[in-house]
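Recall the central idea of this unit: under ordinary conditions, the amino acid sequence of a chain determines the structure it adopts. In this exercise we apply that idea directly, starting from the sequence alone.
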Amino acid sequence: MSQAAEALTAQVTKLPPEERMEVVERILDSLDQPDASLDTLWAKEAEDRLAAYRRGEIKAMALSDVIAKYQVNSKSA
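Accordingly, the structure predicted from this sequence is:
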């Protein structure tokens, strides 16, 4: 971590919990900026996957099966 980040961290940790949460929320909001190029890439990916599904190249899975698969994997990790 840079010296500036270290200094900010030291200052923020002295704030009351409510103010620290506000700082965290503002930092997270600053990271969550729309990116049109990413949106375009994701839209193309979704279209490509749907087309592959319709051509029979990939199969769908029930949501409950997907959730169960990852719940099992997360418990063993």
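Residues 36-76 form one domain.
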